[in-house]
Amino acid sequence: MSQLKIAIIGCGWLGFPLAKKLIKENFIVKGSTTSKEKISVLKTEEIKPFLIDLNKNLDKEILNSFLKNVDVLIINIPPKIRKEKTINYYGKIQKITSNNLVKKINNIIFISSTSVYGSKQGKINSQTIPSPDTINGREILKTEKLFDNKNNTIIRFGGLINETRNPLNHLIKKSEVLNSDAPINYIHLEDCIGIILSVIKKNKWGKIYLGVTPFHPTKKNYFDNLCKKKRIKKLTFSSKKTVVNKEIDDNKIKSELDYTFKYPSL
């Protein structure tokens, strides 16, 4: 059997370690970056590098070369609407999907977000109809429609964390934190990679999965414990009533992908 060829648009915080893992699993991997400096880093890891910036005029030859002879395309680009102060995420992703070579790709994984669900939708599973209440959420949900067919799979990840990346890093700078009783909906980087790999290896196409660790202490309990572990001052939580009740689980992660979380309690 020939090696599967995988292309990852967006070799950043998730895409780069994902690419390295896929190389270890004996896949052939192409990866895109917006940084000239990162080209040599990708090469060092045996990832075939491409300089692609969807915010600028695309070099069609480079994009064609990136998409050519690919079995699985992974689109992993966050919207960055707040940072870039523009709402054109759909347009950016459409620059990829409108390319004729995409039609020749067997399968696409679109990395989405649980922000497609509203903050007050309560208990959520993969059957829950999204009702976003943020600009980000609405734009991502609209973009998901580009991948709505039997050959593509959408993975909606919760808040992405690992040992160095955690919401605590910015919450600690706030004078007070809202919604102390809201459940957390996070997932560790290693589990994100594990779920994506399971989708590819088990050929689970035409699906929507919710990548969230089934671990939902309240925001206050979670961060109180984390601060204690790190031996730093606890966060100051607002006394205002909690209005967020979103709690996300997807039993298909176990039943269909047969995936066991490596970090079940974060």
Question: Which labels suit this protein?
Answer:
two-stranded parallel sheet, single chain, alpha/beta, Rossmann fold, 266 residues, seven-stranded parallel β-sheet, 11 strands
Describe this protein's structure:
By secondary structure, this protein is an alpha/beta fold. It has one domain (5-163, 187-214, 248-255): 3-Layer(aba) Sandwich (Rossmann fold), CATH 3.40.50.720. Helix content is 30%, strand content 17%. It has 10 helices and 11 strands. Strands 3-2-1-4-5-7-10 form a 7-stranded parallel β-sheet, with helices on both faces. The chain has a two-stranded parallel sheet with strand order 6-11. It has a two-stranded parallel ribbon with strand order 8-9. 33% of the residues are buried.
Quick overview:
With 266 residues, the protein is α/β, with parallel strands linked by helices. The chain has helices spanning 15-24, 38-44, 60-67, 81-84, 89-97, 135-144, 168-171, 189-201, 219-230, 252-255; strands spanning 5-9, 28-33, 48-51, 72-75, 107-113, 123-124, 152-157, 159-161, 186-188, 208-211, 247-248.
Report the radius of gyration as a whole number of Å.
19 Å
Number of helices: 10
Helix/strand/pairing category: alpha/beta
CATH superfamily: NAD(P)-binding Rossmann-like Domain
Give the tally of structural domains.
1
Percentage of residues in helical conformation: 25-40%
The whole-number mean of residue pLDDT values reads: 95
Per DSSP E runs of 2 or more residues, the count of β-strands stands at: 11
Strands ordered across the widest β-sheet: 3-2-1-4-5-7-10
Shape: globular
> What does the largest sheet look like?
7 strands, parallel
Name of the CATH class: Alpha Beta
